[in-house]
Amino acid sequence: MDIRETLKDKSRIIIKIGSSSLTHPQTGALDLTKLEILIREICNIKNMGKDVILVSSGAIAVGSRSAGFQRKPKKLEEKQACAAIGQAQLMMIYQKLFAEYGHMAAQVLMTKNTITNDESRRNAYNTFQELLKLDAIPIVNENDTVSTYEIQFGDNDTLSALVSSLVGADLLILLSDIDGLFTDDPHRNPDAEFIHVVESLNEDLMKMGKGTTSSVGTGGMSTKLSAARIATSSGADMIIANGKDFHIIHKLLLGENLGTLFLGKKDHTFSLEEYLHSINK
């Protein structure tokens, strides 16, 4: 059996969307056409009887646009204020669009403490389980508004991998402004080769992480490879793919050879609790 064919059978899927995939590059405003396609794709997955959790960036980008910033704010207090404005706007649009297709969206805002504190992590797990039982679609983001170090630490690649591990997902899809993993930076090296499948992550692969070319998002390739290590060690497959066209979601789930597929291999020595405590030091 083609290894991509197994993606058809995934039942609990995490989809992470980067800021650059949600906004118009010229203005920074939300791309509502793309957003509607995203919602339709997710609703169709739900209609197939699968669980879906969306990890969505974009609060600061949307809020800074509404607040009149010409470029991404740099001061912490500006970022937090923009996150407060943008998160409310994002959720309002998400809930409206999901409702139009007969589905219910739920907001889950997480801080570092949510996942490093044992009791908070258990509560988060129980909340996710209950939301999925209620057939809701959890929409997750970092709580940038109130968490001083969250924006400095934060990238939703890592957050989506941690959520994947927490809820026992079997597939994590990272959609960004890149096609997947190359042997070198394709913008600088025309001979860089595309990597379709990664069977196991080694140190050479981890060193391939490059800085992001996007002026909107925060996560580069290095954060995506770190996310792959968390997700695959927890037993989930992970895909890095281009979010230019959100129709790619159903194509990936049909087993089409798009993006870079990292094969999940449960590492019984990997402990989410130990990993979380290590990043909190």
Could you walk me through the main structural features you see in this protein, from its secondary elements to its overall organization?
GO terms for molecular function: glutamate 5-kinase activity. It is a single chain. Helix 3 crosses helix 4 and helix 8 packs parallel to helix 10. It contains twelve helices and ten strands. By secondary structure, it is α/β, with parallel strands linked by helices. The strands form two sheets. It has an eight-stranded mixed sheet, with helices on both faces. The chain has a two-stranded antiparallel ribbon with strand order 6-7. Helix content is 43%, strand content 17%.
Strand content: 15-25%
Radius of gyration over all CA atoms, rounded: 18 Å
Mean pLDDT equals 87
Level-1 CATH class name: Alpha Beta
Binding site for ATP: 16, 176-177, 218-224
Pfam families: AA_kinase
Subcellular location: Cytoplasm
Binding site for substrate: 57, 144, 156
Short description:
This protein is an alpha/beta fold.
Topology:
Blueprint (H helix, E strand, L loop, with lengths): L11 E6 L1 H4 L9 H16 L3 E6 L2 H8 L9 H25 L3 E7 L1 H5 L1 H16 L2 E7 L7 H4 L2 H12 L3 E6 L4 E2 L11 E2 L1 E2 L4 H4 L14 H13 L3 E6 L5 H6 L6 E3 L9 H8 L2
Parallel strand pairs: 1-2, 1-5, 2-4, 3-4, 5-9, 8-10
Antiparallel strand pairs: 6-7, 9-10
Helix pairs in contact: 3-4, 8-10
Key words describing this protein structure:
281 residues; alpha/beta; Carbamate kinase; two-stranded antiparallel sheet; 10 strands; 17% strand; cytoplasm; ATP-binding
